[in-house]
User: Which sequence fits this backbone?
């Protein structure tokens, strides 16, 4: 049995994540998104195992309505910012929409851009039809995380952001997809927006860890969007989000206090200002008096 300190040490390598399974007594994996250096430092200092530089950056940071608007260049830019913080976490670069749908060589090229930006692995969405690109990435020594269930890049095909695999046939298809991804070589699978019971079936059916978001309690890990768990926005969030802080409220209060101090003249104080030495101040005063 591992000591609790060792059990809580960040699992920051692909093999360490690959071998994590709650049914074998491992602690669940902790993954959060981060899109910049401050976010990466917060995740790292909090002891997070895995940072996902998610395409959710489109909605969370860049103000788009879906994730379809970001490119490989955008994701590489944010991955590099996360990597420069040197977090003590595994960094996953999210392959954006259309970066792995056109051809296998293009996929490998795009994944390489995220690796060169500082990711140690990539994530992509979809089931069995992704097997050829997953095999090619693994062949190119690029570790891959799969993503099944509610796959936001399929928002139009799904008819909105809806919980998936709610019928038994779809649940069995999801299990088959997970097995196909494992066989193709993924080292973990994100399960998003599926019933608790279905996530449990998938988790039991595969040897690689499942990491859930809106997928209930039976996964081998959990992921949340950093801005959601910090309460950096007060927009409506889905029921699976637990808010651990209300940083937007704190931030608005802080900026409002700054504005009030500027308007009243209370900011900056003498202590918050730079000053000339007494000699230089006197010389300037003499100069002013003579002109
Ligand atoms: O981009 C993202 O944030 C994600 C998570 C929802 C898993 O893919």
Assistant:
């Amino acid at each position: 049995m591992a000591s609790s300190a060792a059990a809580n040490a960040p699992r920051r390598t692909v093999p360490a994540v690959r071998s994590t399974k709650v049914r074998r007594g491992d602690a669940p994996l902790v993954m959060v998104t981060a899109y910049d250096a401050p976010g990466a430092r917060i995740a790292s200092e909090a002891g997070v195992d895995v940072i996902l530089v998610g395409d959710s950056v489109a909605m969370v940071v860049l103000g788009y309505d879906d994730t379809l608007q970001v490119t490989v260049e955008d994701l590489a830019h944010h991955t590099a910012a996360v990597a420069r913080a040197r977090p003590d976490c595994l960094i996953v670069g999210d392959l954006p929409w259309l970066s792995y749908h056109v051809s296998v060589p293009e996929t490998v090229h795009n994944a390489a851009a995220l690796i060169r930006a500082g990711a140690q692995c990539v994530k992509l969405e979809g089931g069995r039809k992704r097997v050829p690109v997953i095999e090619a990435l693994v062949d190119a020594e690029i570790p891959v995380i799969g993503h099944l269930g509610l796959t936001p890049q399929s928002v139009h095909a799904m008819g909105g952001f809806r919980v998936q695999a709610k019928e038994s046939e779809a649940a069995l298809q999801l299990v088959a997809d997970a097995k196909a991804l494992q066989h193709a070589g993924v080292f973990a699978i994100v399960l998003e927006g599926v019933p608790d019971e279905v996530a449990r079936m998938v988790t039991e059916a595969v040897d690689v860890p499942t990491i859930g978001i809106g997928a209930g309690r039976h996964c081998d890990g959990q992921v949340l969007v950093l801005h959601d768990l910090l309460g950096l926005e007060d927009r409506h969030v889905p029921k699976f989000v637990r808010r651990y802080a209300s940083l937007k409220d704190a931030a608005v209060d802080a900026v409002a206090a700054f504005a009030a101090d500027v308007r009243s003249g209370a900011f900056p104080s003498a202590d918050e200002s730079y000053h000339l030495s007494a000699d230089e101040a006197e010389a300037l005063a003499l100069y002013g008096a003579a002109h």
